[in-house]
Design a protein that fits this description.
The complex is a heterodimer of chains A (188) and B (245).
Chain A lengths: L16 H55 L1 H23 L3 H10 L6 E9 L3 E8 L2 H16 L3 E11 L5 E9 L8
Antiparallel strand pairs in A: 1-2, 2-4, 3-4
Chain B lengths: L1 H13 L1 H53 L3 H14 L6 H15 L2 E7 L20 E11 L1 H11 L7 E10 L5 E11 L18 H13 L3 H10 L10
Antiparallel strand pairs in B: 1-2, 2-4, 3-4
Classes of the chains: A alpha+beta (188), B alpha+beta (245).
Chain lengths: 188, 245
C-alpha cells in the first residue's frame, strides 16, 4: 500500500542579501552605541563624583583663606596705599632723565681759566644752549677742545656754534647749542 | 483579515532584528540627551569652576603670604614720610615747607615760587591725570639765587626724596656778580590721591619687591624725622590744605 507523504514544513525562502546585511549592521551599530553610552555615562559619573569631592575641599580652603584675608584688612589697606605711593615715585624717578643735574657740572665745573659761562639753558630732554665769554682766542680754543673731549666721552652730541662776537675789549662771546645725552649709570 | 495578520507577522518577523536595533538606538539617543549630555556639561562646568577656584586659591595664598610678611607697624609709623614725598592732594603747604627747609639747609635763596594749583573750584581737578606717567602733576616754577655749587645741591635735593618730590624739566641760568647765579627752574611736583576702597578679596596684590624696598629705605633715610615733619606742619600758620575751601 502506497503511503502518501505530505510535507507540512514550508520551505524557508532564502533571505535577500540586503536583509542579512541590514540585520548584521543594525546589531553591530546598536551594540556599539549602547556600549559607548554606558562607558561614557559611567566615566562621567566617576569623574563628577571624584571632582565633586575635590571641588568641595577647594571651596572649603577658599572660604578659610577668605576669612584669614578679611582679618588682615587693615594691613592690606596700609600696604596697598604704601605700594601705591612707592609705585608712583618709581614711575616718576624712571621718567626723570637726570640730564639737568648731570649736565650742569659738566658745563660749569670743568671750564678753563679765562672763560665764563654768561647764560645757559638746559632742557631735561637733552637740548642745551649757552653763551661763553672768553678773554682770548686761545682760552676759547681750549674751551672748545674741552667740549670736543666731552663729546668724545659720550656726554654731548651735535655741538654747534650758533655765533661768535668779538667785543671791543678783545674778548670773545660764543653761543653754543648742543644735545646732552642721558647719563649712563642712571640710579634712582 | 487572518491573511493580513499573517502577512504582518511575517514581515515583523523578517525585520525584528533591525527593528529591535532601531529601538535600542532611539532609546540610547534619548538617554544620551537626558542623562549623558547634562552630565558632560556638569563635568565641564565643574572642571572650569575648579580651575577658577584653584586660581583664586593661589591668589589668596600669595596674598596671605605677602600680607603676613608685612610689618604693618613700620608702614603705619612711616606713612607720613611717604605722604610727605608725594601727598594725596596738591598740598601747597608741604611744598613751601620743603622749599623753606632746603633754603635753610643749602643757603640758597628762593626769590619766587610759582605753584600752579590749576582747577580748584571743583573736585574734577583731582581727576585730571597724566596718562603717560600715570600720576598727578602740578607744574612749579622756582627762581633761585645762589652759587653754582648751591644750585647743584639744590637740584639734587629736590628729587632725592628728602622732601616733597620735585623734578626739574628745564633750567635757565644767568650769571650775576660775586659768583652768584640766578636760575629759573621749571619743574613738576606730584600728588597721588589715595584709593577710596579696597578691591575684591581675591584681587592680586603686588609684592614688596627690591625696587619698592630701595625707595622705601631711601625715604626713611633721607626724610626728616617724623617729629620734625609733624612739628613743621603744626608751625605753618594755616589750618587747612586748600587755600580756597
Amino acid at each position: 500500500m502506497n503511503k502518501k507523504s505530505i510535507n507540512l514544513l514550508i520551505i524557508a525562502e532564502p533571505e535577500p542579501y540586503y536583509l542579512t546585511r541590514l540585520k548584521k549592521i543594525s546589531t553591530w551599530v546598536s551594540a556599539i552605541l549602547v556600549s559607548i553610552f554606558l562607558i561614557t555615562y559611567i566615566v562621567s559619573l566617576i569623574y563628577i563624583q571624584a571632582n565633586n569631592k575635590d571641588y568641595q575641599q577647594m571651596k572649603k580652603q577658599y572660604e578659610e583663606l577668605e576669612k584669614d584675608i578679611q582679618k588682615t584688612k587693615s594691613t592690606e589697606s596700609i600696604y596697598l596705599t604704601t605700594i601705591g605711593i612707592l609705585d608712583t615715585i618709581k614711575k616718576i624717578k624712571a621718567s626723570d632723565n637726570l640730564i639737568i643735574i648731570n649736565t650742569l657740572p659738566l658745563i660749569y665745573n670743568n671750564r678753563n681759566e679765562g672763560t665764563n659761562i654768561i647764560i645757559s639753558s638746559i632742557d631735561n630732554q637733552g637740548p642745551v644752549s649757552f653763551s661763553v665769554k672768553s678773554e682770548s682766542i686761545e682760552t676759547l680754543e681750549n674751551f672748545i677742545e674741552e667740549l670736543n673731549q666731552l663729546e668724545n666721552n659720550g656726554n654731548f652730541t651735535n655741538i654747534q656754534a650758533a655765533g661768535i662776537i668779538r667785543e671791543t675789549d678783545g674778548s670773545y662771546n660764543l653761543s653754543v647749542n648742543l644735545n646732552a645725552n642721558k647719563p649712563r649709570n642712571e640710579k634712582s | 483579515m487572518k491573511k493580513v495578520k499573517i502577512n504582518f507577522l511575517k514581515i515583523f518577523k523578517r525585520f525584528e532584528i533591525p527593528l529591535a536595533s532601531g529601538i535600542i538606538i532611539i532609546f540610547s539617543g534619548i538617554l544620551t540627551y537626558k542623562l549623558l549630555i547634562p552630565n558632560l556639561f556638569k563635568a565641564r562646568e565643574m572642571n572650569e569652576d575648579g580651575k577658577l577656584l584653584r586660581k583664586k586659591i593661589t591668589n589668596l595664598s600669595n596674598k596671605k603670604k605677602i600680607l603676613s610678611s608685612v610689618d604693618e607697624r613700620l608702614l603705619r609709623d612711616n606713612f607720613i614720610k611717604l605722604n610727605y614725598v608725594v601727598p594725596d592732594n596738591k598740598d601747597y603747604v608741604l611744598l613751601f615747607t620743603t622749599l623753606d627747609q632746603l633754603q635753610q639747609k643749602i643757603g640758597i635763596s628762593i626769590t619766587r615760587t610759582d605753584f600752579q594749583l590749576g582747577v580748584i573750584s571743583t573736585s574734577s581737578a583731582l581727576l585730571k591725570r597724566n596718562k603717560t606717567a600715570d600720576n598727578y602733576i602740578v607744574p612749579v616754577t622756582l627762581e633761585v639765587i645762589g652759587t653754582i655749587e648751591q644750585l647743584q645741591s639744590f637740584l639734587g635735593e629736590l628729587s632725592n626724596l628728602s622732601g616733597r618730590l620735585i623734578t626739574a624739566e628745564q633750567i635757565k641760568i644767568e650769571v650775576l656778580d660775586f659768583g652768584l647765579v640766578k636760575a629759573i627752574i621749571s619743574g613738576r611736583t606730584y600728588f597721588n590721591p589715595l584709593p577710596k576702597q579696597l578691591g575684591p578679596v581675591e584681587t592680586e596684590i603686588p609684592e614688596f619687591n627690591q625696587n619698592y624696598q630701595e625707595i622705601f629705605k631711601k625715604i626713611l633715610e633721607n626724610q626728616y624725622p617724623i617729629e620734625v615733619i609733624e612739628e613743621t606742619q603744626e608751625n605753618v600758620p594755616v589750618g587747612k590744605n586748600n587755600l580756597f575751601l
